[in-house]
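dumping this here before i forget
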Amino acid sequence: MAIGNLENLMEAEVIKTIREIIESGEVFEEGELCSCHDCLVDIAAIALNMLPPHYVADKYYKFPDPPKKEKKRQEQVQNAVRFAIRKVIKRPHHDKQ
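structure:
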């Protein structure tokens, strides 16, 4: 069974939020954020595992959420990403540089 058009919209939201936080230069009390590929993938994986999936059957035909639901989802994503960043800062999968 081919399911090529199936997409979890949360993936794009998480990646966008990670980029926005990195570009903002946000400071974390746990230390400096490493932006190597491994750390970014760890951050995305941790955040995505904390969030409910939001699958669509065709990524080009998405139904927009009501503004209230969209705002709540954005807050959930931001909280999950910040939690994941703090966790990866504390325990990266490589030596701290």
